[in-house]
Amino acid sequence: MTHKIAGATSALRDLFTVIVVVCCAAAAQAQAGRGGISGLVADPSGAVIAGASVTLEDIATGVKQSTVTSSGGLYSFMSLAPGTYKITATEKGFQTMVQDHVRVTVDQTTLLNLTLNMGNVSQVVTVNATSDVLDTSNSTVGQLIDSAAIDRVPLLYRNVFDLAQLSAGVNSANASPNSSDSMLSIQNISSGRPGIDISSATINGAIVGSVYYMIDGSPIGIAENNAAAIMPAMNIPEDGVDEVRVETQNTPASFQSGAAGVISLVTKSGTDKFHGDVFGVFRPEVLSANEYFNKQTQLSSGMANTPPDFYRYQEGAAIGGPIKKQKLFFFGDYEATQQEEYEGIDYFSVPTMAERSGNFSAMSFTIYDPTQPDFANGPLAGTRQPFTNNTITNPNPIGMLYLSKMPECNLPSTTSCEAATTDVVNNYGIPGMDPYSTCVSIGSRAKSSASLPAFPSTGWRSPRPMYFPAAGTPIMLITPPTGATSWWPTT
Hints:
Blueprint: H1 2-29, E1 35-42, E2 53-58, E3 64-68, E4 74-80, E5 83-90, E6 96-104, E7 109-111, E8 114-115, E9 124-127, E10 141-145, H2 147-152, E11 170-171, E12 202-203, E13 212-215, E14 218-219, E15 221-223, E16 230-232, E17 241-249, E18 262-267, E19 275-283, H3 292-300, E20 311-324, E21 328-348, H4 353-356, H5 397-404, H6 414-418, E22 428-441, E23 445-447
Parallel strand pairs: 1-7, 1-8, 6-9, 13-18
Antiparallel strand pairs: 1-4, 2-3, 2-5, 5-6, 10-17, 11-12, 13-14, 15-16, 17-18, 19-20, 20-21, 21-22, 21-23
């Protein structure tokens, strides 16, 4: 009978211990953008050890935290910055237990149970490595992309959001599982935005624009104007990101993601030693080759085979280190991109050289003089007076100067377009060049025993210049009298 009571008591104790561990792990999990470590301290027989001292040390910074186990032998460290830690457990009558290289990852709680053997405190048992443990504290499905993977995976545009494609169930903007189109032909929310095409990625079939974004536990998603879609407010430099976690299923309610998936970034911070890097990627325009259709257009219009300008330059640097050893640390980085890329041939309508001087005598239509009154008598009474010989006799100097800045027509050829007897639409072709310039920077980021949020990064995209007016835009060729409107040819 005594054995049965003891067995029941042991079973209840074990059940209580499991419940406490799960509840504590769930509480630690709620610290979005951070991690945690929890577990039990017990003797070799499985009996829990209450009041044991447990010390946690961040290997990178030397910062230490301490706690004692509860009456159930439970210890817990919450809201930890992702990284590698060392745990030391001590209690009178037991050997000191040291668990080294304990890995903490973003949005996860590491469950680590410690066993103290009988002996003196001065006796130290050190475990130098731990294997990855299956997280049984929550049902979230996701993947961690650590700093080693970030360093190894080639990112053409250094866009860390593209790393989400390494996770199962993530479909990218161009529907290709392992490629990205961060800059090219991305014009609306249904296919992403330049530099943040991740906004159009879908996770496990969720609707476009429903992915949620976090950085260091803070939401950075913003609503797209006039669209029910979320997009990241900023890009973080690749050298400033320590980890990326992609939650693809059963995301916690704390993320407010609508269960459509979460991409969580953790930024780097300084350590007890100085570390840094400098990089540069240079692709000058002298290495450009001509695009096939652009070449055919040039040759057919009598122009030389001239490759369009294309260049891409990326440069940046990062540095981190201690401000005060084991107390205060800093990290900062900078990244910039200057790029111009070919996007196909753009077509425009430009006036011929004769039209620029006001001479429309070769045209089949008639132009009228807005400075003269309508005919008062005769068969043309009530109609407008045309220019003599279809030629403007008093061209406006401002309009002439404006037209002189336009390029000459070149389609179908420079000769045929100048000999046109009627207006020719799209008589000038030029390689479309899309300038792209960004600058993203975390700036300085401080860290003490608890990490401070990163300062917001900044970024911009230079607009594409408009060289010519749209069809139908009035161009002032003559000086109208007071109260008159601008002139435009009438067919």
